[in-house]
Every structure is written in structure tokens, then in C-alpha cells.
Design brief:
single chain, alpha/beta, TIM Barrel, 8-stranded parallel β-sheet, 3-stranded antiparallel β-sheet, 11 helices
Length: 346
């Protein structure tokens, strides 16, 4: 390995949005060519994957598009979920129970409100007993009086509910997805070993000023995701957790493609398509933070270990070769589109 090349075991992405139909066929190869295995989120708009029949159909659609890819299937926790449906989904191959609180992000319309999880501990205990991972988007959109919580504080307000779940369902393996704040990172560090978190490349690059104005109006829909990017202090905390070698924190891209018109409209859709650029960006971040020796563990080892999956035996090489990121993929904007990156997947 030369100084301008880095070779690692092929990575695992435990948080990928592949969509369905034409969008799936457009974007899947940008995940599968780098990540031979990924946890596929089932929050498909108007058709959530929340039962065994839908899960099997969605897995078949993915494998038809790319037979060599290994999707780790998730099932959504919605108002329709029962102990019986969870059992059927597990038998059909679901490894992950995914929860997006109602209305906080794309495809979360069928989700319960986060406070209502305290009435669903029987479902979480069933997931634990089956050996499922509970993958949760921890944000709270409104307080107990119904008042809207600012976008930049929604993750913070959800920390208490994470702690409630940990107490109510001991031993449940929980992944706090796409952590973006110093406070949530501290909460994960204080939690028992059955609680871990994913970190994205974009939360280690963006700050709130790249997304919102002082009144929390969205000023750049291309950078808008949930949870929103936070301030410099939070970004620094994400980068330290990412590059510090703690197995509680591992990569999850949260790559979430949308058509350009959905990102540039008056109400931009939440989600950023990062699959084509995530590894080159991470490489740069780890070098900047003097943590390049931890890159392989972060993207290829800690995630599979937490999920109880084998680490990939194949390898992938990143080279220092400047290139310009295309603005879009056939009408789907790419994160950092039009910018030059220093590292490239070879």
C-alpha cells in the first residue's frame, strides 16, 4: 500500500434507503458496488414495509435489480404492527425493526409518535426475544403541550425516550440512527453495551448554516436531512466519535435519494444521496482528524459485529486522485455535486 492509497475490508452500510421502482434501479448500484451488504430501510412512501408479504416482495425487487447484493431487511414499526406480524416478519427474514416517529422524516407518516412507544414495550420485548435490532430515528417533533420543537433541538428532546426504552426493555439491541448532536453522543456513551449509534459522513461536514437560516427556514434543500445538521460544536463531537475507535459508533450512510424537484421545492424532502461520495469523504475526515487507522473498523468491522454478521473478506482501495462529483445522477442530486474531492474509490 502506497502513501496515496488506503486498502480496507469492504464496508457494511447499516442504514441505506434504496427506494423502489425506477429510483431503486437508478441508485442501487452506487451502494452495491461499494457495500456488498447493507441494511435496507423500509420507509417507502405510501407503501411502508410493515408486514411479511411486503418484506418478501421488496427483497425480491432488490435482488432482481442486483442478484449479487445482500440486503439485510428491516420492517417498519407502524400502527399496524402486532406481535404476530413481527413473528411473521422475523420468519420471512427481517433482521431489523425500524422506527421513524410520525411526521419527523420521509416515509414516517405511518409511524407512532415517539411518546407512544411506552405503550408498545410488548413489541420491543418481542423484537428483543427474536434477536432483532431496534433501529430508531430519535427525534421529537412537538412537546407534551403540542408545541413544535425547533428542528435543531428535536434530537435532544428525544434523549429521555431513549433512556426510557433502555430501562423498560433491558437487553434490547438499539441502534440510534444518524446521531447529529453532542448530547446524543454522550447519551449513547453512557448507555449499556447493547446500545450503539450510526454516524453519517454528511453530519461530519455540514453545519446548520449550510441548511437553515436563523428562523429555521430551509435555505438549501440539497443539504436538508433529518436530523438537520447542527452547530460546529456538534459537528466536532460527531467527528471525534467517528474517528475515536469506540465500537459503539459505526458508519451508516443514511443515503436517501430524491428527485431534484423534491429537493428544490418550497418544502424540500428530507434526505441526501451520499452513496457515491461517502467513502471518499470519510477518508478525508479521518485523515484530518488523525484517525485514519480507525477507518476500517468504523466502516467495515464495528457495524457487522454489532449486528452479529461476518466481517467482509473482500477488500476495497481508496486512492488520492482528485475528481469532480457530478451534480446529479439522471435527475437525482448527489451530495457535494459539482465539488472536487481528493479521494476516490479505485
Amino acid at each position: 500500500m502506497s502513501q496515496n492509497e488506503i486498502t480496507i475490508r469492504k464496508p457494511f452500510d447499516p442504514h441505506a434507503h434504496l427506494r423502489s421502482g425506477q429510483m431503486l434501479r437508478k441508485v442501487l448500484s452506487y451502494t452495491s458496488c461499494i457495500f456488498p451488504r447493507a441494511v435496507v430501510m423500509g420507509n417507502l412512501e405510501n407503501d411502508p414495509v410493515d408486514n411479511a408479504k411486503r418484506l418478501v416482495a421488496y427483497r425480491d425487487e432488490i435482488l432482481k435489480a442486483d442478484p449479487g447484493f445482500e440486503p439485510v431487511m428491516s420492517v417498519m414499526l407502524t400502527r399496524n404492527t402486532t406481535v404476530e406480524s413481527l413473528d411473521a416478519c422475523w420468519k420471512a427474514g427481517a433482521k431489523v425493526l425500524k422506527f421513524i416517529p410520525g411526521g419527523v422524516s420521509t416515509g414516517g407518516a405511518e409511524g407512532l409518535d415517539l411518546p407512544d412507544l411506552k405503550f408498545q414495550t410488548h413489541l420491543l420485548k418481542k423484537a428483543r426475544n427474536l434477536g432483532m435490532i431496534f433501529s430508531c430515528h430519535f427525534e421529537l417533533a412537538s412537546d407534551e403541550n403540542g408545541a413544535a420543537i425547533p428542528k435543531g433541538r428535536q434530537e435532544y428532546w428525544a434523549i429521555g425516550y431513549l433512556k426510557e426504552i433502555i430501562r423498560a426493555v433491558p437487553g434490547l439491541k438499539i441502534v440510534v440512527e444518524h446521531v447529529s448532536s453532542e448530547e446524543m453522543i454522550e447519551a449513547v456513551l453512557e448507555a449499556p453495551l447493547n446500545v450503539a449509534a450510526t454516524l453519517t459522513a454528511h453530519h461530519a461536514i455540514l453545519t446548520v448554516d449550510d441548511v437553515l437560516d436563523s428562523r429555521e427556514n430551509i435555505i438549501n434543500g440539497l443539504n436538508y436531512c433529518k436530523p438537520v445538521a447542527k452547530d460546529i460544536r456538534d459537528r466536532h463531537a460527531v467527528r471525534l466519535a467517528m474517528t475515536g475507535g469506540n465500537p459503539k459508533f459505526f458508519f451508516g450512510s443514511d443515503s436517501a435519494p430524491h428527485p431534484l424537484d423534491r429537493k428544490l421545492g418550497s418544502e424540500p424532502a428530507a434526505g441526501i444521496f451520499t452513496a457515491p461520495v461517502a467513502l471518499p469523504l470519510l477518508c478525508k475526515i479521518f485523515i484530518e482528524e488523525n484517525g485514519i487507522g480507525w477507518l476500517e473498523n468504523f466502516v467495515s468491522v464495528y457495524g457487522p459485529q454489532f449486528y452479529g454478521l461476518p466481517v467482509s473478506e473482500g477488500t476495497l482501495t481508496l486512492g488520492e486522485e482528485p475528481w469532480e462529483v457530478p451534480f446529479d445522477l439522471d435527475g437525482v442530486p448527489i451530495f457535494m455535486g459539482g465539488k472536487k474531492l481528493q479521494w476516490k474509490v479505485m
